[in-house]
Amino acid sequence: MSISFSLAGKAALVTGANTGIGQAIAVALAQAGADVALAGRSEPTETLAAIAATGRTAISIKADLSLIDPVEGVVAQAGEALGGVDILVNNAGIIRRADLLEFSEEDWDAVIDTNLKTLFFLSQAAARGMVARGGGKIINIASLLTFQGGIRVPSYAAAKSGVGGVTKAMANELAPHGVQVNAIAPGYIATNNTAALQADETRNRQILERIPAGRWGASEDIAGAAVFLASPASNYVTGHVLAVDGGWLAR
Asked: What range(s) does the Ketoreductase domain occupy (predicted)?
């Protein structure tokens, strides 16, 4: 039996692909042969250019994914432009920080709605087409806080724990239809979102001391895992949350 990591002939929809992890995943999927639709609030100019350089097709879909209202239209627009959606990567997310005793309902709802509610209903919309076509791949971006509690981020921890649970729930129901659902839990990745931590000498040292690999992760580390989970090589992998963390959770 041959093992293939090729995504030739496939169409992917990636949310939150303007920078960082989402951008790296979208470009890596294109490098593996997929055409890619990018959904989010802002125009992902750099990502579109990087995908164009691979020779693959890329389109941008403007959508506010803090609400579920756009999800059907996003999937439909991606499908019309690319001939269906074979791969969905739910990367878009937000985080709000505050002390537990002061945490507001507004911050709770904003994070849960974007990171969990929209993720589920976008997956549901994409899965309908995947089931009709006989297969597909859904990849959710979880977190180390899928497994840990964190500090000052209760809604984020709740949402990412929920991502782990809903990944397994979706996998159970969609596996008979040839749709695999998995999640990636990134560790400490060097992106714009973690710039403050990297710049804090004490926190940076503490983080590096905890990571067996001895370095911050790169967005490309996550992208490699995404290509595997999007490809035929992972056809017997479903309901799994893959930590890409340099060994953080093993410590």
From this structure: 10-187
